[in-house]
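Quiz preparation item.
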């Protein structure tokens, strides 16, 4: 306590804080020494200032000040020190005795513990050996397991089972790399494992490259198979529709009372939808019909996933497939597109069938967006190729072949969910061009068929010929099969042209169908009407105007036109049936006969030739005695010759000409005869005539009317009356000239009822010839010659009033 107090008094010994710097330095040095602080700052300071003597002086001063303090402390504690020394001396003897006791105890302990220590040392040595052996065994076991895994890696590598080899190497790195006691083995693993992985990646890349080459050939075959399946399905649908049309036709014609049931046998294993994809492909076992095996692809993808290179492989696969697709777009300029289009489209179809399979089973190898991107590129290129190729084509059949294959391509890929609207738009865009080419081809064919016509009735010796040329176009007039040989009432031009038109309909329907447009009957009907009116009608009209020189030829052509009329009904029904339109709707919208110009021209030509023939007989009218004194009892010579000609014509024409055509022709000829008689009476060759001559003309007209009435067995009674009406002009003229009151012609009611066919100008001319000479013309009408005949007076009044009107 005293020493501590004295130390505290020393530190603040100097209270002169305002004194010189030596005092302050001395005070600071004393304080530092007292507190046990380091003196290095002071030493550096004095050496920096170059005054080490000052520090030495202060240290000596401090030392002197402490000597006095030590002395004072020693004085204070001296008595205690003496007492402690005495205690130590007394304790020394006790220590000696204790030392001897400890020595004895140690000797006893050494004698007793010696064997135990030896045993302990042996135990520790044995335990260390045991630990070392256990550690060695564990290390050996680890090495054995590691070598087993390495052996499995080698085995899998020898079997090209790279995925298992990679999994084993992952196991080595995860479980054994840090635990391997052998540094040599560890270094070997660190070197070989990356080399093996690189080797696996290289081998898998080579296998994938081989697959990329192989899949192109497989894709082409796959596309051809898929499109072939679509074609087979379309063919089955067509056969089903044909059977349905046959059943409808039989039902419509009421041939049988049978109920028809159409059943479709699915015996070829063709299935629709995505279920059918396995017919073409297998994702893992390679047992597809064409070996469509994606195993190498999925194996490469799986290996790259295991190697941590999944994204790089996806990009590599997409870029390579895109390059392959671009290569597939190349159209060879050395090979006509008509020959290479199937391979071209089959390659693309197979490509996207494969990609659809990869999309659905590849585990994310291809995304839907990437496949759609490839498909958009393919559609754009195919549309471009089709536009270019269609623009170059000049043959309808070539365009149809390519269109059919493209539509099959669309049907095939539509099953896999690809949009084909752009392709269908291209096909529909060239619809008009196709039909124009088709019309051009048919125009050439029809022109050749018409030009080859020999204007002879067609002979058929066998039933199959009758079926092929008549029944197939439904132009028969009876359902009873005729006896053979059969002479048809038409020439070979009819079935030839019918075949061309039927082919046109089928080609048109083939182009329009399977093109995304469901109701295309109106389009087919429009082009069919153009074919009939612009092509067939024009060709027949040209034939009629340039090639017909005789009555028999004209008769055959007129008969052909009647058959064509029935054929046109068949064409309309056939187009409706192929277009899937009910027959009742087709019949409801049926137009007039499209070959009216040719039909009218043929009948006019036939009538004209017959009129020329009749004109030859009508020249005999010049032999008529126009001033005969007595009424004739028989017909004139010209009438007899005309009747003979008409009966001969009728016997021949009714074997070939339809009744209606024959009626119209006879009607035209009789009308011409009537006109010629009237013209003869009004002509310059007849200066005057008597009533008796008119009575003779009346006999001639009655003979012609009787001929017309006798045709009631051939036509209906009403139509026979229509034939008789063809002679109405000459009949009304004769009635007027023989009438007792000719002036009644001026009565509008009577004229409309009895003389509507007469031209008043002709009546004036002819009536004037009847009155000269008066006594001879009208001498029989009265018994007194000096009294004016009322008929003569009436006739003169008629003539006068008609002249006034004129």
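Solution:
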């Amino acid at each position: 306590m005293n020493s501590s107090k004295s130390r505290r008094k020393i530190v603040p010994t100097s209270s002169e804080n305002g004194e010189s710097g030596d005092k302050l330095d001395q005070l600071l040095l004393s304080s530092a020494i007292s507190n046990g602080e380091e003196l290095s700052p002071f030493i550096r300071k004095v050496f920096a200032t170059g005054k080490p003597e000052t520090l030495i002086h202060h240290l000596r001063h401090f030392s002197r000040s402490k000597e006095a303090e030590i002395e004072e402390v020693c004085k204070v504690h001296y008595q205690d020190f003496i007492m402690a020394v005495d205690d130590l001396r007394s304790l020394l003897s006790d220590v000696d005795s204790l030392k001897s006791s400890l020595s004895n105890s140690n000797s006893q302990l050494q004698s007793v513990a010696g064997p135990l220590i030896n045993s302990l040392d042996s135990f520790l040595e044995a335990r260390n050996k045991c630990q070392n052996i256990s550690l060695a065994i564990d290390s050996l076991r680890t090495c054995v397991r590691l070598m087993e895994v390495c052996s499995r890696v080698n085995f899998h590598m020898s079997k090209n089972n790279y995925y298992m080899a990679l999994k084993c190497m992952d196991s080595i790195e995860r479980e054994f790399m840090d635990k391997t006691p052998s540094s040599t083995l560890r270094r070997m693993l660190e070197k070989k494992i990356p080399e093996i992985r690189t080797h696996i990646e290289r081998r898998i890349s080579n296998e994938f490259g081989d697959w990329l080459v192989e899949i192109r050939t497989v894709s082409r075959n796959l596309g051809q198979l898929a499109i072939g399946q679509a074609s087979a399905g379309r063919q089955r649908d067509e056969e089903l529709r044909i059977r349905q049309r046959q059943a409808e036709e039989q039902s419509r014609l009421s041939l049988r009372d049978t109920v028809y049931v159409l059943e479709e046998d699915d015996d070829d294993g063709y299935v629709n939808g995505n279920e059918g994809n396995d017919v073409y492909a297998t994702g893992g076992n390679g047992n597809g019909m064409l070996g469509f095996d994606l195993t190498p692809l999925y194996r490469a993808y799986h290996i790259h996933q295991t190697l941590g290179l999944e994204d790089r492989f996806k990009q590599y696969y997409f870029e390579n497939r895109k390059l392959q697709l671009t290569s597939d777009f190349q159209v060879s300029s050395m090979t006509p597109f008509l020959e290479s289009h199937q391979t071209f489209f089959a390659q693309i179809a197979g490509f996207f069938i494969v990609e659809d399979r990869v999309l659905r089973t590849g585990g994310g190898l291809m995304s839907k967006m990437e496949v759609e991107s490839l498909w958009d590129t393919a559609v754009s290129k195919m549309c471009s190729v089709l536009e270019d190729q269609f623009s170059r084509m000049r043959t309808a059949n070539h365009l149809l072949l390519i269109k059919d294959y493209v539509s099959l391509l669309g049907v095939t890929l539509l099953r896999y969910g690809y949009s084909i609207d752009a392709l269908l738009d291209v096909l529909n865009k060239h619809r008009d061009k196709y039909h124009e080419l088709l019309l051009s081809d048919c125009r050439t064919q029809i022109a050749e068929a018409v030009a080859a016509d020999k204007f002879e009735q067609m002979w058929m010796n066998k039933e199959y010929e009758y079926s092929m040329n008549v029944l197939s176009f439904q132009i028969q007039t009876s359902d009873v099969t005729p006896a053979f040989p059969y002479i048809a009432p038409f020439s070979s031009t009819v079935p030839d042209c019918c075949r061309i038109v039927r082919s046109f309909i089928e080609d048109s329907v083939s182009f329009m169908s399977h093109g995304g447009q469901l109701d295309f009957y109106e389009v087919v009907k429009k082009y069919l009407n153009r074919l009939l009116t612009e092509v067939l009608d024009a060709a027949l009209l040209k034939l009629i105007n340039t090639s017909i020189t005789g009555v028999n030829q004209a008769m055959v052509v007129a008969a052909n036109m009647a058959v064509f009329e029935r054929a046109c009904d068949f064409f309309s029904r056939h187009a409706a049936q192929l277009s899937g339109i009910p027959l009742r709707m087709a019949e409801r919208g049926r137009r007039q006969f499209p070959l009216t110009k040719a039909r009218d021209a043929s009948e006019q030509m036939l009538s004209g030739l017959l009129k020329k023939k009749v004109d030859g007989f009508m020249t005999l009218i010049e032999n008529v005695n126009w001033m005969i004194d007595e009424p004739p009892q028989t017909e004139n010579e010209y009438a007899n010759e005309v009747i003979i000609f008409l009966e001969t014509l009728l016997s021949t024409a009714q074997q070939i000409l339809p009744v209606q055509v024959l009626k119209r022709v006879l009607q035209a000829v009789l009308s011409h005869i009537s006109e010629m008689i009237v013209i003869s009476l009004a002509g310059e060759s007849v200066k005057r005539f008597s009533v008796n001559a008119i009575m003779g003309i009346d006999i001639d007209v009655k003979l012609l009317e009787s001929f017309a009435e006798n045709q009631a067995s051939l036509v209906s009674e009403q139509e026979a009356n229509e034939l008789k009406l063809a002679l109405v002009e000459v009949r009304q003229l004769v009635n007027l000239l023989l009438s007792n009151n000719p002036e009644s012609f001026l009565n509008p009611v009577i004229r409309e009822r009895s003389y509507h066919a007469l031209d008043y100008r002709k009546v004036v001319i002819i009536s004037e010839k009847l009155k000269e000479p008066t006594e001879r013309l009208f001498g029989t009408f009265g018994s007194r010659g000096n009294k004016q005949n009322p008929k003569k007076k009436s006739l003169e009044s008629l003539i006068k009033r008609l002249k006034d009107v004129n």
